[in-house]
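tool=predict chain=A
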Amino acid sequence: MHGNIIVPQGGAADFTAEIDLMKSVAHPAGLDPDRIFRPTIRLVNNVEVGGLTGLVDDTIVIEGCEPSVFIFEDDGMDAALDAANSLTSAIVNEQMNDMGMTEYHYTIGFLLGGDYEIAFSCDDGMNLNPANGKPATVVAGEVANVGLP
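tool=predict ok
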């Protein structure tokens, strides 16, 4: 565990524990189709969190794509990101809009307020778009809308 948990004396606390399945399930070479499950759990104080949601440009969702987004803590560097170092991830959902057109949406909750980088992938994070992420700011109690790419 990283960090401290503070519960006020005589008070109450409200926390969420989240398992990141993309980080928790490993596909070791030579064991296919078997998988190894090692839970990666984040614990956040619900009064300090917000979220991100957005639309993914359909031109980057290619045929055979397994669309997902990855969230990274913003370290102030413009270097290419590595999905193995992501804070969390989410699956991109295909939806039909009111005009019968296909759209791709994602939503990620329980992010502590602060600055992040977000990137899209079709292949479990092997290739991220944009490679150095798109800036996103999360404010506690709010859901920011950030489109990709």
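The chain has one helix and twelve strands. The helical segments are 21-24.
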